[in-house]
Amino acid sequence: MKFYLESKVGLMQNSNSKIWDNHYTKVKSKLLYPDENLVRILAKLNWQGRALDHGAGSGRHIPLLKNFGYSVKACDYSNTTIENLKKEFSDTEVRLITNTELPYLDNEFDLIISWGVLHYNEINEAKKIISEWKRILIPNSYLACTIRADTDTHLAIQKDLSGSKIKLYSLEEVKSLLEDFKDLKIGYMERTVLGKLDQRISHWIILAKS
Question: Among 121, 70, 68, which residue's Cα sits nearest to residue 99?
Answer without folding.
Answer: 121
